[in-house]
Automatic annotation (TrEMBL):
Its EC number is 2.7.14.1. GO terms for cellular component: extracellular space. SUPFAM superfamilies: Glutamine synthetase/guanido kinase. This is Protein-arginine kinase. Gene3D superfamilies: Glutamine synthetase/guanido kinase, catalytic domain.
Amino acid sequence: MGSENLFKPVLSSWLEQDGPQSDVVISSRVRLARNFKDWNFSGAGVELFARVREELGTRDGFSFLAMGDLSVLERGMLVERHLISPEMMRRQDFGAVMVSDDERASVMFNEEDHIRIQCMAPGLQLEQVLNEAFVLDDELEINMPYAFDKRLGYLTTCVTNVGTGLRASVMVHLPGLVATKKLQKTVEAIRRYGFVVRGMYGEGSRPASNIFQISNQVTLGKTELEIVQDLSDVMEQVIMQERVCRTKLKQTFHIAMEDRIFRAYGVLKHSRILAQKEAADAISDLRLGIQMGYVEHIPSQKVNELILFSQPAFLRRFAQRDMNELEEKVIRAAAIREILDTY
């Protein structure tokens, strides 16, 4: 398959599937931060880039992409696909990424650490993606041993990652908690358990479409499996609370909810100009309507397309040109109408 679909308006194959608890949890991800033994943690860019390209550039089942060979638009599309971080997008000189053919796995080189391995899957599947990341982690270490301390664990550029080097996260859709004004109380409870809530693109990003990332803060003093199990336990509580809120909304405000959801569908189906926030709010309501049974003729996977293909980089690829603010709104509306054309 190679990398030909990475820069096309085509949904990643794993996002076309529903996973466990997918009414609330969109995806699960783990990321392992690693540095190589006997290499400077910073300033090793040129030599490290050459080494990994030689060792891993032709790995079966993966595409090797150097940031310097990609346009700003292509790097932006990789961010919007969650295959690289916004920080990686800026590493033009010596940054690179390996992406698996199914886009479930990617490995960033020369981001904050020498490598960052990540694996993703639909729904709540943290233990599954952790095991997949371990397999890739072991394979990469064979030829290039990691920097590891018996007492501290894996050594990383930032001390907040020392130990396991693990960031486990889930991307969740929480419109019920937002609408009933219970989100802040839930966020505070999550923080007390050592987890943090961020926007859909991680640290520094703002929530959109009522989508949030929940991830661990502690990487030292627990095993990887303990971290993943703790996050899974927290998520079971969040999922239960979100479902309770949705049920109350449907029971108490049935007509108002139905009206809100079909108004959102109308906006997406018929608008000629759509700002990013307006589209995000309407997409969130449509996804809620599908999960609550108000909208039965649209598959939930279509919402993933709407979220991805309404982002700025994908719109420019869709239009095959750069555009000003008004043109972006026009193209966003056109792209969304095309996705919903048969619905």
